[in-house]
Amino acid sequence: MTQDEMKQKVAEAALKYVKAGTVIGVGTGSTANMFIDALVSMKDSIRGTVASSKATAERLAGHGIPVLDLNEALSQVDSLSVYIDGADEFDGGRNLTKGGGGALTREKITAAASDQFICIVDETKKVEYLGVFPLPIEVIPMARELVAGVAKKLGGRPVLREGFTTDNGNIIIDVHGLKIANPRGMEDELNSVPGVVTNGIFSHQGADVVLVGTPSGVQLID
Ligand code: 5RP
């Protein structure tokens, strides 16, 4: 089975977490795109969606699925019922690295506004320690060298994502070579540096359920 076939299976499996009449959060990336395509079958039963990026909002709208701004949604409902998104890595504690597509900040905000986070990944994303995939950090441009210096002190090799601007108008620094044994501590430490908008460790906003696509079927970690 190919990686795309495993992604397709978990994307479809996530539909069962979508409850009729609710507003749901929708992630960004190729796995989330497969989920969006599958969601078309339920578009008339949900109240709406909140998108974690401009690209996701465009794809949802292109399918005729209603998209709400998060503030608008939270003036109508107390919370989003579920957030469904992929990840670049997951560990045994359901901590994630996200932001390969650069949407980490809006993804973290949408996850925080949701009652439940269902992460949809294929088995190649499993790691013992986060950090095998370079850790993305969204940074206000003025703070680029300050944040890069902190990343070096933490043992990483910061690389500016060339030619990329986030939906929020900021830059991304990808930090290579970290072995993240304490995801929550690293998430907090990096987020405490002035100029960091957020980093791609999702420990505070870790997944409630990870659906893992494997050649033998979808496994559930909760
Ligand atoms: C985007 C993300 C994605 O969830 C992550 O990059 C995984 O992408 P894909 O489903 O294409 O493998 O965090 O910012």
Mind explaining what this structure looks like?
- With 222 residues, this protein is α/β, with parallel strands linked by helices.
- The protein folds into two domains: 3-127 and 204-221, 3-Layer(aba) Sandwich (Rossmann fold); 135-199, ACT domain (Alpha-Beta Plaits, 2-Layer Sandwich), CATH 3.30.70.260.
- The protein is built from seven helices and 14 strands.
- The chain has helices spanning 3-13, 30-39, 54-62, 70-74, 104-112, 144-153, 183-191; strands at residues 23-26, 48-51, 67-68, 83-85, 89-90, 96-97, 117-122, 135-139, 157-160, 171-176, 196-199, 201-202, 209-214, 217-221.
- The strands form three sheets. It has a seven-stranded mixed sheet, sandwiched between helices. A four-stranded antiparallel sheet has the order 9-10-8-11.
- The protein binds ribulose-5-phosphate.
Concise description?
By secondary structure, the chain is of the alpha/beta class. The chain has helices spanning 3-13, 30-39, 54-62, 70-74, 104-112, 144-153, 183-191; strands at residues 23-26, 48-51, 67-68, 83-85, 89-90, 96-97, 117-122, 135-139, 157-160, 171-176, 196-199, 201-202, 209-214, 217-221. The structure holds ribulose-5-phosphate (5RP).
